[in-house]
Design brief:
Pfam families: Glycos_transf_3. The protein has 343 residues and is of the alpha/beta class. The protein is built from 15 helices and seven strands.
Amino acid sequence: MRNFVRRVELGEHLMYEEMVEASKLMFNEQTASQDIVDFLVALSRKEETAHEVAALASVMKSFALRVNVPRETFMDNCGTGGDGSNTFNISTASAFVLAGAGASIAKHGNRKVSSAAGSSDVLEALGIHIDFSLDETIELLQQEGITFLYAPNVHPKMKRIGAIRQQIGKPTIFNLVGPLTNPIPLKTQFTGINRPDFTMEYASVLRMLGRERAIVVSGAGGMDEASLAGQNAFVLLDKGDLIPFSLTADDVGLAYAPISAIRGGDAKENAATIRAIFNGRRGPHFDTVVFNAGIGLFANGRAATIQEGVKQATESILSGKALQKLDAVVAFSQKIGAKAVAR
């Protein structure tokens, strides 16, 4: 491992096969923790390449638990996180809106690593426990068209890496690979990164991993979500083609708002914000969610344009369908919890 650390510290990019070898060493319990810390920090300083990200994603997914589901057009809208913008849980809220609009959502998420509240933290605050068995995860997906996969439950080899990431306390390549390692096979995806210079490479990774259609966004102000605060950089992957484009909130009929208008708090505060949105409270939080959900519906092929996607996302909320999805998942979680207590 020290050989890889030295090479990366010198600014050398690893070939795909070399990164596969280095990734397997990271998951080897015999590899010293400090060597893994040094490797991850060096990669971050050098800045990761598409081949390095794709190689780690393939290794990490090979170690994940197998989830047997029917072949459908499942979608994830998990971003990389680590953007430091301290916003509320936009992608988690958007997942319910997407499901309310008819998309089949398999949302991959984790607890906070470099934010005040991660996806799993806010789900618990909403009343949804995250320790579903694989059978329960599949049952929820088939019953409600949405499910949540808590990363440590489906990536058992990540326990040690998780502790190392906490020790580093800053984004690493594992932020980049998180959205790429959902154990449920995905045909479509909407994901965000906070590196506008890496959107094309990240879209190429999605192509390497077999996505049929996907959108990568790097938001204004360094967000890993589409932002109301200015120009957002996108790449659309469609049938193998990579198509860059840019978009502002105004382009889809939404109002400009600074990132400060959507700052988040702890999990309890963010859960309250999400419920307020689903109850129809308009403003920057609402607009941010429909913007991102609208892009997701376009990525999923349910909307012919992003503008149409924003309309469908708005309807998902104002019709009560997004809230119904949230309440249905909460009810499912409570039912599972009651069965566990009974046992």
